[in-house]
Design a protein that fits this description.
about 100 residues, flat, single chain
């Protein structure tokens, strides 16, 4: 018995950005990209810290202090508060007055 010729229907390819499911809003895509970026930056920072620690170990340094973002923020906030308290406690003078 001879089979009839096969019939097929050509399906057009779907246009979808690679790696991003269709139907997602721009906010989700932005948050997803930001999360990946944050992970990469975090891994990069950890690798830098490892390299610094390894260098110190190889060269005989026994004390190591790494200043991070939180330390810098706290120092700036402390300095702002110190200056504000000094400004409120200092007497106000004109420029031509002698202290």
């Amino acid at each position: 018995m001879k089979l009839p010729p096969g019939k097929y229907i050509k399906i057009q390819p779907q246009v979808v950005a690679p790696g991003i499911p269709s139907g997602l809003d721009d906010d989700f895509v932005y948050r997803f990209q930001a999360a990946i970026h944050a992970k990469v930056v975090d891994l990069f920072d950890k690798e830098i810290i490892k390299a610094i620690q390894q260098y110190c170990l190889e060269n005989g340094y026994t004390d190591l202090v790494l200043i991070d973002e939180e330390f810098i923020r706290a120092a700036i906030e402390h300095e702002i508060q110190r200056r504000e308290s000094y400004a409120t406690s200092a007497p106000i003078r004109r420029n031509d007055e002698n202290p």
